[in-house]
Amino acid sequence: EVQLVESGGGLVQPGRSMKLSCAASGFTFSNYGMAWVRQAPTKGLEWVATISYDGSSTYYRDSVKGRFTISRDNAKSTLYLQMNSLRSEDTATYYCTRDHGILSYFDYWGQGVMVTVSS
Amino acid sequence: DIQMTQSPASLSASLGETVTIECRASEDIYNGLAWYQQKPGKSPQLLIYNANSLHTGVPSRFSGSGSGTQYSLKINSLQSEDVASYFCQQYYDYPTFGSGTKLEIK
Fold first, then answer.
1. Is residue B22 within a helix (H) or strand (E), and if so which, with residue range?
2. Is the pLDDT reported for residue A90 higher than 90?
3. Is A41 on the interface with B (CB under 8 A)?
4. Which residues in chain B are contacts of A2 at CB distance < 8 A?
5. What average pLDDT does this structure show over A20-24?
6. Confidence of residue A81 (pLDDT cuts 50, 70, 90)
7. Between A44, A50, A106, which is nearest B99 by CB?
8. Smallest Cα distance from A107 to chain B, Å
9. Confidence tier at A56 by pLDDT (50, 70, 90)
10. Which end of chain B, N or C, is surrounded by fewer C-beta atoms within 10 Å?
11. CB within 8 A of B11, min separation 6: which ones?
Protein backbone atom coordinates (compact mmCIF):
# COMPACT_ATOMS: atom_id res chain seq x y z
CA GLU A 1 0.00 0.00 0.00
CA VAL A 2 1.38 3.39 -0.99
CA GLN A 3 1.85 5.65 2.03
CA LEU A 4 3.04 9.24 2.14
CA VAL A 5 3.44 10.80 5.58
CA GLU A 6 4.28 14.49 5.91
CA SER A 7 5.85 16.19 8.90
CA GLY A 8 7.40 19.48 9.88
CA GLY A 9 4.53 21.95 9.67
CA GLY A 10 3.38 24.50 12.24
CA LEU A 11 3.35 28.21 12.96
CA VAL A 12 6.17 30.37 11.60
CA GLN A 13 6.74 34.12 11.43
CA PRO A 14 6.86 35.94 8.09
CA GLY A 15 10.34 35.96 6.61
CA ARG A 16 11.44 32.84 8.49
CA SER A 17 12.12 29.33 7.20
CA MET A 18 10.56 25.91 7.59
CA LYS A 19 11.38 22.47 6.19
CA LEU A 20 8.76 19.86 5.39
CA SER A 21 9.49 16.14 5.07
CA CYS A 22 7.53 13.32 3.49
CA ALA A 23 8.31 9.68 4.28
CA ALA A 24 7.27 7.34 1.48
CA SER A 25 6.60 3.61 1.63
CA GLY A 26 4.81 0.89 -0.29
CA PHE A 27 6.49 1.58 -3.64
CA THR A 28 9.98 1.99 -5.13
CA PHE A 29 10.50 5.65 -4.28
CA SER A 30 13.51 6.09 -6.57
CA ASN A 31 11.39 5.21 -9.63
CA TYR A 32 8.95 8.12 -9.31
CA GLY A 33 8.84 11.85 -9.61
CA MET A 34 7.37 13.54 -6.55
CA ALA A 35 5.60 16.83 -5.98
CA TRP A 36 4.19 19.20 -3.39
CA VAL A 37 0.68 20.58 -3.80
CA ARG A 38 -0.85 23.08 -1.38
CA GLN A 39 -4.32 24.21 -0.42
CA ALA A 40 -4.97 27.49 1.39
CA PRO A 41 -7.79 27.36 3.97
CA THR A 42 -11.16 26.90 2.24
CA LYS A 43 -9.46 27.40 -1.14
CA GLY A 44 -8.55 25.29 -4.13
CA LEU A 45 -5.47 23.27 -4.96
CA GLU A 46 -2.20 24.77 -6.17
CA TRP A 47 0.83 22.92 -7.52
CA VAL A 48 4.04 24.08 -5.79
CA ALA A 49 7.03 22.05 -6.99
CA THR A 50 8.08 18.81 -8.67
CA ILE A 51 11.29 16.79 -8.61
CA SER A 52 12.32 14.03 -11.00
CA TYR A 53 12.88 10.45 -9.87
CA ASP A 54 16.63 10.96 -9.49
CA GLY A 55 16.57 14.55 -8.27
CA SER A 56 18.32 15.88 -11.36
CA SER A 57 15.41 18.09 -12.45
CA THR A 58 13.22 20.40 -10.40
CA TYR A 59 10.30 22.64 -11.31
CA TYR A 60 8.57 25.41 -9.35
CA ARG A 61 5.58 27.69 -9.61
CA ASP A 62 6.62 31.28 -10.17
CA SER A 63 5.48 32.54 -6.76
CA VAL A 64 7.87 30.23 -4.87
CA LYS A 65 10.85 30.26 -7.25
CA GLY A 66 13.99 31.37 -5.44
CA ARG A 67 12.38 30.85 -2.02
CA PHE A 68 11.45 27.13 -1.96
CA THR A 69 13.68 24.16 -2.70
CA ILE A 70 12.39 20.66 -3.37
CA SER A 71 14.83 17.80 -2.79
CA ARG A 72 14.85 14.07 -2.09
CA ASP A 73 16.92 11.35 -0.46
CA ASN A 74 16.24 8.11 -2.32
CA ALA A 75 18.21 6.08 0.23
CA LYS A 76 15.76 7.22 2.91
CA SER A 77 12.67 7.30 0.62
CA THR A 78 12.07 10.84 1.78
CA LEU A 79 10.97 14.01 0.00
CA TYR A 80 11.67 17.50 1.33
CA LEU A 81 10.49 21.05 0.84
CA GLN A 82 12.73 23.80 2.22
CA MET A 83 10.72 27.00 2.47
CA ASN A 84 12.57 30.30 3.01
CA SER A 85 11.36 33.89 3.22
CA LEU A 86 7.88 32.71 4.06
CA ARG A 87 4.93 35.01 3.40
CA SER A 88 1.38 35.05 4.73
CA GLU A 89 0.16 33.86 1.35
CA ASP A 90 2.14 30.62 1.82
CA THR A 91 -0.26 29.64 4.60
CA ALA A 92 -1.79 26.36 3.49
CA THR A 93 -1.99 22.63 3.95
CA TYR A 94 0.92 21.11 2.03
CA TYR A 95 0.40 17.71 0.45
CA CYS A 96 3.17 15.36 -0.60
CA THR A 97 2.14 13.61 -3.80
CA ARG A 98 3.49 10.98 -6.14
CA ASP A 99 3.76 12.29 -9.68
CA HIS A 100 2.73 9.65 -12.21
CA GLY A 101 5.28 10.95 -14.69
CA ILE A 102 6.90 14.35 -14.45
CA LEU A 103 4.61 17.38 -14.24
CA SER A 104 1.79 14.86 -14.68
CA TYR A 105 -1.16 13.86 -12.54
CA PHE A 106 -0.80 12.98 -8.86
CA ASP A 107 -1.81 9.40 -8.21
CA TYR A 108 -1.22 9.25 -4.44
CA TRP A 109 -1.45 11.92 -1.76
CA GLY A 110 -0.34 12.21 1.83
CA GLN A 111 -2.64 13.38 4.62
CA GLY A 112 -1.20 16.88 4.47
CA VAL A 113 0.62 19.16 6.91
CA MET A 114 -0.52 22.65 7.90
CA VAL A 115 1.84 25.60 7.57
CA THR A 116 0.70 28.89 9.10
CA VAL A 117 2.73 32.01 8.41
CA SER A 118 1.79 34.68 10.90
CA SER A 119 3.37 37.06 13.38
CA ASP B 1 -0.38 29.26 -17.53
CA ILE B 2 -3.35 27.25 -18.71
CA GLN B 3 -6.49 28.36 -16.86
CA MET B 4 -9.08 25.77 -15.85
CA THR B 5 -12.66 26.99 -15.48
CA GLN B 6 -14.79 24.51 -13.53
CA SER B 7 -18.58 24.53 -13.19
CA PRO B 8 -20.78 24.54 -11.28
CA ALA B 9 -19.18 25.78 -8.06
CA SER B 10 -21.72 23.82 -6.05
CA LEU B 11 -24.27 21.16 -6.79
CA SER B 12 -27.09 19.54 -4.87
CA ALA B 13 -28.57 16.27 -6.10
CA SER B 14 -30.65 13.37 -4.83
CA LEU B 15 -29.44 9.86 -4.10
CA GLY B 16 -29.50 7.74 -7.25
CA GLU B 17 -29.31 10.75 -9.58
CA THR B 18 -26.67 11.32 -12.25
CA VAL B 19 -24.55 14.46 -11.96
CA THR B 20 -22.09 16.08 -14.35
CA ILE B 21 -19.26 18.47 -13.56
CA GLU B 22 -17.47 20.35 -16.30
CA CYS B 23 -14.04 21.84 -16.85
CA ARG B 24 -12.96 24.12 -19.64
CA ALA B 25 -9.29 24.75 -20.41
CA SER B 26 -8.04 28.06 -21.80
CA GLU B 27 -6.32 26.12 -24.60
CA ASP B 28 -6.21 22.61 -25.99
CA ILE B 29 -4.80 20.22 -23.36
CA TYR B 30 -4.88 17.08 -25.52
CA ASN B 31 -6.62 14.90 -22.91
CA GLY B 32 -4.03 15.73 -20.25
CA LEU B 33 -6.72 15.99 -17.60
CA ALA B 34 -7.32 14.39 -14.22
CA TRP B 35 -10.21 14.49 -11.76
CA TYR B 36 -9.86 14.30 -7.97
CA GLN B 37 -12.32 13.78 -5.13
CA GLN B 38 -11.72 15.45 -1.76
CA LYS B 39 -13.98 14.37 1.08
CA PRO B 40 -14.41 16.78 4.03
CA GLY B 41 -11.26 16.93 6.14
CA LYS B 42 -9.38 14.51 3.89
CA SER B 43 -6.73 14.74 1.20
CA PRO B 44 -7.65 14.61 -2.50
CA GLN B 45 -7.81 11.22 -4.19
CA LEU B 46 -7.33 10.55 -7.88
CA LEU B 47 -10.45 9.40 -9.74
CA ILE B 48 -9.74 9.78 -13.45
CA TYR B 49 -6.60 10.42 -15.53
CA ASN B 50 -5.99 10.95 -19.25
CA ALA B 51 -9.52 12.41 -19.35
CA ASN B 52 -11.30 9.05 -19.30
CA SER B 53 -9.20 6.36 -17.54
CA LEU B 54 -10.42 5.15 -14.16
CA HIS B 55 -7.81 5.01 -11.38
CA THR B 56 -7.35 1.74 -9.50
CA GLY B 57 -10.16 1.02 -7.07
CA VAL B 58 -12.46 3.82 -8.22
CA PRO B 59 -16.10 2.70 -8.62
CA SER B 60 -17.34 2.37 -12.19
CA ARG B 61 -20.15 4.88 -11.55
CA PHE B 62 -17.49 7.55 -12.08
CA SER B 63 -16.56 8.32 -15.67
CA GLY B 64 -14.72 11.03 -17.56
CA SER B 65 -15.02 12.30 -21.10
CA GLY B 66 -14.08 15.19 -23.33
CA SER B 67 -11.41 16.44 -25.66
CA GLY B 68 -9.70 19.64 -26.73
CA THR B 69 -10.67 22.28 -24.19
CA GLN B 70 -13.90 20.75 -22.80
CA TYR B 71 -14.01 17.91 -20.26
CA SER B 72 -16.58 16.45 -17.90
CA LEU B 73 -16.88 14.11 -14.93
CA LYS B 74 -20.10 12.10 -14.61
CA ILE B 75 -21.24 10.34 -11.47
CA ASN B 76 -24.03 7.80 -12.03
CA SER B 77 -26.35 6.58 -9.26
CA LEU B 78 -25.20 9.13 -6.68
CA GLN B 79 -24.34 7.60 -3.31
CA SER B 80 -24.09 9.32 0.09
CA GLU B 81 -20.33 8.64 0.16
CA ASP B 82 -19.94 10.79 -2.97
CA VAL B 83 -20.44 13.96 -0.88
CA ALA B 84 -17.16 15.77 -1.54
CA SER B 85 -15.45 18.49 -3.50
CA TYR B 86 -14.26 17.60 -6.98
CA PHE B 87 -11.34 19.21 -8.79
CA CYS B 88 -10.05 18.95 -12.33
CA GLN B 89 -6.35 19.34 -13.14
CA GLN B 90 -4.56 19.76 -16.45
CA TYR B 91 -1.05 18.42 -16.99
CA TYR B 92 -0.45 19.30 -20.61
CA ASP B 93 1.57 22.24 -19.25
CA TYR B 94 2.71 23.07 -15.70
CA PRO B 95 -0.09 21.63 -13.55
CA THR B 96 -3.09 23.83 -12.80
CA PHE B 97 -6.35 23.00 -11.08
CA GLY B 98 -9.96 24.03 -11.46
CA SER B 99 -11.55 25.92 -8.57
CA GLY B 100 -13.61 22.93 -7.46
CA THR B 101 -17.23 21.78 -7.26
CA LYS B 102 -18.84 21.07 -3.91
CA LEU B 103 -21.35 18.23 -4.20
CA GLU B 104 -24.07 17.80 -1.60
CA ILE B 105 -27.02 15.46 -1.26
CA LYS B 106 -30.45 17.06 -1.55
1. strand B19-25
2. yes
3. no
4. none
5. 98
6. very high
7. A44
8. 6
9. very high
10. C
11. B19, B21, B101, B102, B103, B104
